[in-house]
Amino acid sequence: MVGHKFKVGQRVLFHSPRRAIGPLIVTVVRKLPTEGHGVTYRIKSIEEGFERVANEGELSSIHEAT
Length: 66
Hints:
Blueprint (H helix, E strand, L loop, with lengths): L10 E4 L9 E9 L7 E5 L6 E5 L3 E3 H4 L1
């Protein structure tokens, strides 16, 4: 079984292929079950008023980027 790399409450960088600008700092709100879609999370940004689902490959540690 594949484990989640990030913890609930952790701030990470979200690299969306659909965003025209650089990565967005988000907070992991919830770990989602891994059912054939890989490891996914529910995330939220202070800049946006909604939550979204992201694949683990779209996220990176803030420390990795510095």
